[in-house]
């Protein structure tokens, strides 16, 4: 199964030298399931010629706001709606979660409560998990077709599933299962004193442990793509 990674943002240097770009993080997260990957840097205007160029699609995070006037936003929203209508499996993480919601009728905005940094507790059904987060924007109005599957005290709309004729056709999460604890610490530290205070950054960094539920979410994403492939056979 070929997964098309729609890269909507960039890991800044020098972090990229140490950890790779977002597509590399997702390839590590989804390794071991037989997937092939192809990256389209939509942030630079690189889009697939067809929604059928890959068997499934995944939208990465970005520093950009889904509501900001970037040139790639409207064609990305069009692509999302086309993939969604065709019921080709589609997943989104952080910005990907937000732009999917916006394209499908929801609303995204900066959260008045500020930044969510580091290890965060989420409720998924009856289970509580911990995953890594780094965002201020949130989905404040969910699309009509979205089912809420993950939530937290800080971010109500933290995960959506979208039902199709053959099962779940799209899934998205606000948090970052592709981030490692080390990358998250370094990323928070790199923006310390700029986007948030040094005290906020250090508190978040100190709270990040080596164990979280990212692997579990990665498995859930893999199973989502694989289930869609089995349905198509």
Automatic annotation (TrEMBL):
SUPFAM superfamilies: Class I glutamine amidotransferase-like. InterPro entries: ChyE-like (IPR044992), Class_I_gatase-like (IPR029062), GATASE (IPR017926). GO terms for cellular component: cytosol. Gene3D superfamilies: 3.40.50.880. GO terms for molecular function: transferase activity. Keywords: Glutamine amidotransferase, Transferase. Pfam families: GATase (PF00117). It comes from Blastopirellula marina. Residues 53-188 form the Glutamine amidotransferase domain. This is Glutamine amidotransferase.
């Amino acid at each position: 199964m070929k997964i098309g990674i729609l890269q909507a943002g960039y890991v800044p240097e020098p972090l990229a030298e140490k950890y790779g770009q977002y597509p590399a993080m997702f390839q590590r997260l989804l390794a071991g399931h037989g997937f092939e990957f192809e990256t389209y840097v939509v942030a630079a205007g690189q889009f697939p010629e067809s929604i059928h160029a890959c068997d499934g699609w995944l939208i990465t995070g970005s520093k950009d706001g889904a509501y900001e006037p970037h040139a790639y936003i409207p064609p990305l929203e069009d692509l999302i709606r086309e993939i969604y209508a065709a019921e080709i499996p589609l997943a989104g993480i952080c910005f990907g979660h937000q732009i999917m919601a916006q394209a499908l009728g929801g609303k995204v905005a900066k959260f008045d409560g500020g930044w969510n940094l580091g290890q965060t507790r989420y409720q998924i059904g009856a289970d509580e998990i911990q995953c890594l987060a780094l965002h201020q924007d949130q989905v404040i109005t969910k699309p009509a077709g979205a089912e809420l599957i993950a939530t937290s005290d800080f971010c109500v709309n933290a995960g959506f599933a979208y039902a199709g004729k053959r099962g779940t056709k799209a899934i998205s999460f606000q948090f970052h299962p592709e981030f490692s604890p080390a990358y998250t610490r370094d990323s928070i530290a790199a923006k310390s004193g700029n986007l948030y205070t040094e005290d906020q950054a250090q508190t978040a960094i100190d709270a990040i442990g080596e164990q979280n539920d990212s692997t579990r979410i990665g498995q859930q994403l893999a199973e989502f793509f694989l289930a869609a492939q089995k349905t198509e056979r």
